[in-house]
Amino acid sequence: MTTERRPDALIFDMDGTLFETDTLLVSVHQRVFRTLREEGLYTAETPPVERLLGCLGMLLDDLWRKVMPDASAEARTRADVLLLQYELEGLAAGEGRLYPHVEETLRKLKEGGAKLFVASNGLEAYVKGVAKHRGIAGLFDGIYSAGEYGTATKVELVSRLIADHGLAGQTVWMIGDRSSDVEAGRGNGLKTVGCAYAKYGGASELEEADVLITDFRELLG
After folding, report:
1. Cβ-proximal residues to 68 (8 Å cutoff; 6+ apart), any chain
2. Is the domain of 182 the same as that of 210?
3. Would you say 12 and 175 are in contact if contact means Cβ atoms under 8 Å apart?
4. Is residue 199 assigned to a domain?
5. SS3 sequence, 89-143?
6. CA 135 to chain centre
7. SS3 of 156, please?
8. Residues in the chain with pLDDT < 50?
9. Which of 121, 155, 164, 184 reaches 20 to 30 Å from 59, CA-CA?
10. 33 lies in the same domain as 131
11. pLDDT digit string, tens, across residues 20-75
């Protein structure tokens, strides 16, 4: 990967970009649906975990409508609570890992003078929990989530981040693995970097990205 100028700031998605989410979510998925069934809120077969992984990057309400379209509103609301509870319990127990070379690369980018941020459509406690339990929280100048700011799109979330930190007019990259990340970058006039090493979305989602990387270290370019 080559670049004309090193970025002043980099904004990262979390799931599928920094965090290899299936290393946590496979077990969490089974626990969520087992509990829903025990509580009488869901009686159908447990949806395949691949369906949930394929919805990463969506807002939670949209995610559950895709994962269990026939479920009641009560079941989806309860699933929100259970998902966060079991994710945080898993993270605290040491489950889930970052993609290879993420921590070392982030540290080198930080040492090189770049400001680092996270922008995720996830819940605040989850997004900050991943950063905390995987030891990278202190590397970021800001960790933004749709859950904390109540944004309807990632374009809106990234716009708020840029305004809050005075990044307008600077060289900023948006790095992610889903079409929502590319849209967030392009919608805010940023260079977009697609993470082709992730496996949760389709390859077509990154067609509009400026650059594709297959190894996180390529960001050091």
Report:
1. 42, 44, 47, 75, 76, 79
2. yes
3. yes
4. yes
5. HHHHCCCCEECCCHHHHHHHHHHCCCEEEEEECCCHHHHHHHHHHCCCHHHCCEE
6. 16
7. helix
8. 1, 3
9. 164
10. no
11. 999 999 999 999 999 999 999 999 999 999 999 988 888 888 899 999 999 999 99
